[in-house]
Amino acid sequence: MPRLVLLLLGIALAPLSLAAAAAGDGTRYLFLVRHGDYDSNTLSDPATGPGLNELGKEQAAFLASRLGTLPIAFDTIITSQLARARETGDIVAARLRKSLQRDANLNETRPPGDNVPPSAVAPGAEATLQRAWNRYVVPAAPGTAAHDLLICHGNVIRWFVVRALGADPRQWSRMQIANTSITVIEILPNGSTNLLLFNDASHVPPAKQSWVDRLPPWAAAR
Fold first, then answer.
1. What is the pLDDT of residues 165-218, one digit of tens each?
2. Which structural domain, as residue segments, surrounds residue 127?
3. How far is CA 59 from CA 55, 56, 103, in A?
4. Which of 56, 59, 129, 139 has the least C-beta neighbours within 10 A?
């Protein structure tokens, strides 16, 4: 079971293992961000889904400002191919003045999970997520440090978190996650993983937050 360093919601992100990063010891820091809010009933291209609504664009701007204050430079920014993640990434990349990559392996999917009926499981979901895991959850090159930003989806992020903790991947469905929240997984030179941060949405005012299923008590109902 890997070590767990779980920081509570609202803790500032700047101090995250920066000493290790500066040392260039082969550690990779994987920043996983959920896209902004969107209207699922909006007519859209069935291949890419709906884009951000106005709230989602506001959330993405808050996210971009937050990431822009960090004392690190992202080596890569990668989004899924779905519109809501792409548009969130466009807003962030403009603020950080970075180029973007796209990866269909980061598209939203639904793997087997606790209380997920078999009929709701997406065909090939576990294989797709495993490909994404194999690509991104790897140490940095020896003598370097890497910081990668993946802007993707709630199910993808929750599955990565459970895997990083060495737990049963089916437990991903027992987590709530907010739009434009930040999760950070540390990959050490030996390939082991630590969860440094999960679902940090403190950059989004409570009245502007939106979550997978329901708002928590501190987020004002819209």
1. 999 999 999 999 999 999 999 999 999 999 999 999 999 999 999 998 777 888
2. 26-185
3. 6, 5, 22
4. 139
Is the Cβ–Cβ distance between 177 and 35 less than 8 Å?
Answer: no
Which residues have CB under 8 Å from 106's CB, separation 6+? 78, 79, 80, 81, 85, 132, 150, 152, 153, 156
Interacting residues of 4 by C-beta distance below 8 A, sequence separation 6+: 165, 194, 195
Are 12 and 156 a contacting pair, CB within 8 Å? Answer: no
Where is average pLDDT lowest: 5-9, 15-19, 80-84, 104-108? Answer: 5-9
In this structure, of 1-15, 120-134, 157-171, the range with the lowest mean pLDDT score is 1-15
Domain membership of residue 203 (yes or no) is no
Q: What is the pTM of this model?
A: 0.88
In a domain? residue 55: yes
> How many domains, the chain?
1
Q: Pairing mode, if any, of strands 4-7 and 193-200?
A: parallel
Backbone angles phi, psi at 149, to 5 degrees: -115, 115
Q: How many CB atoms lie within 10 A of CB 135?
A: 12
Q: Is residue 206 part of a domain?
A: no
CATH of the domain at 91: 3.40.50.1240
Q: Is residue 200 part of a domain?
A: no
